[in-house]
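Query structure, 359 tokens:
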């Protein structure tokens, strides 16, 4: 009968073990109390935090005792739990009193003081890189004129970057396009013009597209970085003339800069356009009077353009008798420099927030 009673109390534990568990627990709790009280009595200011961690912390001895209560006989659990809780509370109070006594309470040490009246920390707001902003602006203007956007690979074949654009292997134009080769026939594109070829191979006229992206050249000084951004634009249809090119670029420049910005088309040469032109705008710094930025000329070069050379149409299988078109390529960094009055292209890529946060 005895055995049976104990078994009920100990919920299936062997009687001797049940009794032992109860006693051991209670002894342990009381011993812990004695030990902690003594330790607290002797604690100096610098012992307080280690004390708190050891006895009262989340991984402290009292927490671990409470956890072990799960294995105590069910009948004893409430009483033991209350005992442990009361002691923990008592110790917490004693701890606070001791803190007070030693002048180490919350609000007394500067490290732990919480000042609710302090203003919150302001998180700096991110923004788009100036090159990204200008790129988006350029694309938006051309999209407004009905151009669609196409993107292509940065690693390009010799065929698309040169050959199909009427730049054969030993053509002097390759000098200006010294680049980084992946292999003999694979390179980092030196301009976005290869996208003209990729688009024309894929689609039949009429065609009205822009191709924004990164381009690469072996160049590095205050006006050149080895990587920069271009937007290529091209339009192919029947009876496209130089007047159409002028019209589109005039609208673009008026929207990108001021409506009354002066424009000048200067004869030039590109192997893939005929005739070709460099397009200048009246200097945005001095208004055309002549300054250091425009090298006293009053003009700033902003893009290359021309009518697509019939030799290029031949490469993609368009009938040069039936179709004509224009193409242009503009440098984004350069346009952003002129728009914002930036005098060193390298500033874009130094990641200095004092520079970047101005845009
Ligand atoms: N691809 C030329 C360059 O990067 C620019 C250009 C594009 C010129 C289209 C004419 C027509 O220098």
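Result returned for the query:
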């Amino acid at each position: 009968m005895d055995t049976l009673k104990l078994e009920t109390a100990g919920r299936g534990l062997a009687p001797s073990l049940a009794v032992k568990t109860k006693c051991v627990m209670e002894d342990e709790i009381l011993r812990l109390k004695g030990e902690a009280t003594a330790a607290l009595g002797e604690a100096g200011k610098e012992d307080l935090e280690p004390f708190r961690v050891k006895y009262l912390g989340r991984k402290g001895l009292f927490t671990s005792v409470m956890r072990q209560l799960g294995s105590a006989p069910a009948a004893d659990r409430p009483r033991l739990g209350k005992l442990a809780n009361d002691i923990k509370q008592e110790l917490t109070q004693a701890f606070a009193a001791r803190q007070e006594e030693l002048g180490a309470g919350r609000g007394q040490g500067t490290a732990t003081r919480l000042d609710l009246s302090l203003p919150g920390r302001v998180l700096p707001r991110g923004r788009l890189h100036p090159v990204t902003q200008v790129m988006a602006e350029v694309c938006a203007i051309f999209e407004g004129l009905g151009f669609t956007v196409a993107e292509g690979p940065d690693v390009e074949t010799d065929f698309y970057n040169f050959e199909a654009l009427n730049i054969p292997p030993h053509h002097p134009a390759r000098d200006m396009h010294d680049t980084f080769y992946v292999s003999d026939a694979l390179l980092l594109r030196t301009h976005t013009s290869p996208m003209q070829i990729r688009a024309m191979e894929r689609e039949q006229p009429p065609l009205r597209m822009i191709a924004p992206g990164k381009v690469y050249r072996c160049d590095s000084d205050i006006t050149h970085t080895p990587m920069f951004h271009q937007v290529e634009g091209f339009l192919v249809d029947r009876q496209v003339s130089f007047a159409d090119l002028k019209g589109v670029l005039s609208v673009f420049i008026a929207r990108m800069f001021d409506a009354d910005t002066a424009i000048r088309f200067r004869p030039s040469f590109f192997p893939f356009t005929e005739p070709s032109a460099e397009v200048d705008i009246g200097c945005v710094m001095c208004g055309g009077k002549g300054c250091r930025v425009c090298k006293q000329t009053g003009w700033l070069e902003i893009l290359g353009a021309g009518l697509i050379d019939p030799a290029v149409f031949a490469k993609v299988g368009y009938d040069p008798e039936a179709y004509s078109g224009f193409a242009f390529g503009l440098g984004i960094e350069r346009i952003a420099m002129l728009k914002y009055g930036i005098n060193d292209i390298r500033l874009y890529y130094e990641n200095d927030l004092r520079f970047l946060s101005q845009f």
